[in-house]
């Protein structure tokens, strides 16, 4: 079974934690990966088993990108902070580009995440 990735910028971590709590029954059906702190926070709040990669700014985004490139990813939930400049923006752009190239759905906010969960449940 392919993986689902969970990523959130600092100002969006609480939103992603709450989202995963709301949909814990959905997420427990998939192997989960996440960037470091995000994965820790979600695991503590939900009890979900999550393989934690490096923090996003030090390579975690690229590790998830590698999973995408290797055709190991089902979807990405990346709650981005659109109002704060990110020092690792090139890594974020590369991750989104890989998702586009490999036709991997990526939800970047709660509304698109709700749609993605609904779509994946129909699969």
From TrEMBL:
Residues annotated to bind substrate: 9, 13, 35-38, 55-56, 88
Catalytic activity annotation: dihydroxyacetone phosphate = methylglyoxal + phosphate
EC identifiers of the protein: 4.2.3.3
GO cellular component terms given for this protein: cytosol
Primary enzyme class: lyase
UniProt-annotated catalytic positions: 61 (proton donor/acceptor)
MF-aspect GO terms: methylglyoxal synthase activity
Keywords linked to the UniProt accession: Lyase
Membrane found in the keyword field: no
Keyword Metal-binding: no
Function: Catalyzes the formation of methylglyoxal from dihydroxyacetone phosphate.
Family stated for the protein in its record: Belongs to the methylglyoxal synthase family.
Annotated protein name in UniProt: Methylglyoxal synthase
Organism: Fusobacterium mortiferum
